[in-house]
Structure formats: structure tokens, C-alpha cells
């Protein structure tokens, strides 16, 4: 006598098969582990893409740092040429922007054939200092010890400040000025030029330079090939900015005075917005009129005993 067994999950073998098939959904329609695994795949891909992006960013940052660390000295030379409109150049550069050397050259600017080079090489070192850079320059012929500059970049601005110095900063032969072209190449000056500064700094903002403090250029024991009298005298040319100049914001005041000598020079003007303006008056010291008469005719327009020259 045979007995029949009823399948509790359905009729026949088809019902049993359905009973033992894995379910793709859990209780109350919740996602199964199989569904969770499939959903993890896009997240894994996103993490992998992000990792590749971070690796690429790290490689680019490393390349940038390598370029900065080993940047050639010619980069600094290009920056100086651009800032001076091609009048002050560094040629025959060696080393990097952090430790390099070169030759300082004065020129008449783009297209000019006039150029003069200082004897001996100028060397420099640069290091990060706070939020800026500290630049130290040395030149046996012309710099008094060590010239220290602080370079401070900012958002839409750039500042160069000269560190305080006990006496003068630099000194070079007046003949170097012939590289600037006319009228210096005609005058062929002798003597020397000495530079000093007081709280001097330059700020580049809104596409122009703005000066603070005072810069003095002393022309000592000046002589010229256009005059038989030597020396002609010693003079001080001062550039005053900010509160020192007592002028408008962004405008530097220019002053020329005579320290001593047979040729007496006095001048004043301004430089900043628009074209520079400068008026020079030249006279001869008592008893030197005959010796300086021809030179006074060359300097400017004669007004009796005076010779007047104007720019702007």
C-alpha cells in the first residue's frame, strides 16, 4: 500500500524547485546581498577614478616644484628686462634663479645699439622668507658688501623693498651710463655714481609702479668730453615717493642739486602718471663763465647766464 506525500511549497516537482530557488529579494522587498554587491561596483569605479586624479595632480605638483627648484637663471634675467623696459639686462647667466650669476648691462632699450657692461660678474642667492622671497646680491666692483632685497608677491600686486643699509648701496663708473644712449653716449661722463636708499620700496599694482621712500644717486667728480674743464662738480639726483615726496599717490618727485663744483645744476620734476616732467637750470660758478660757455650752450636754451633744459 503506497503513500502519497504532499509538497508543502507547491504541487509537484515544479513547486519544490521554486521553493529551493534563491530569492532575489529579502523580507518585505528588501534588497538582497547579491543586489548590494552589484550596487557597489559604481562606487568602486568612482573611487578608482578619484585615485587616478589625485595621482595625476601629485605628479603635476611634483613637476612644478622641480621646475621652480631648478629654474634657470635666465628666468630672473627675463623678469628684470621686462621690469626695466629692456634698459637693465643680465647676460651670460649661469646657475639657477636661486643661486646664479651674470653680467649687468645698461642699454638704450629695444632696438638700441648702445650697451655698456659693468666689470665683474654679479652673483645672487634667493630663499623663501615668510610669505615672500629674500634676494641677496654681491658684486666685487660695485656693491657695498651685500645688497638685500625683499620680494613680496600678492594678489594683483608685487613689492620690492630694499633692506636698510648703513651707508651706500652700490657704486659704479659714470661711463656705464653711456649704455643708455642719448644724451649719455654724447656726454661720455667720467667720475662715479653712488646709490643710497632710505625706506625705499617699489610696488607694482594696477599695471604701474608706485614708489615709497627715497632713492639718491650721487654723481661724484663728474667730467665730460664736451668740456675741457674737469671735474665739473658733484651732484645729487633724488627720487622721492609717498610721504617723503609730499606728492600725489603714485607720483614720484625728482630733484637735482649741486654738492660742489664749477658747473651749478638745479632741477625738479615728477614721474608717475603720464609722461615724466623735469626742468633743469645750469649756470657757471663765478669766475668759470668763459670755461663753461660752450657747455652751457649744449645743455639747453640760453636765458642770459642760465641754460634751461625741459622734458615734458
From TrEMBL:
It comes from the Bacteria. Keywords: Membrane, Transmembrane, Transmembrane helix. Residues 1-37 are annotated as: Disordered. Residues 1-10 have a biased composition (Low complexity). The chain crosses the membrane at residues 54-77. This is General secretion pathway protein N.
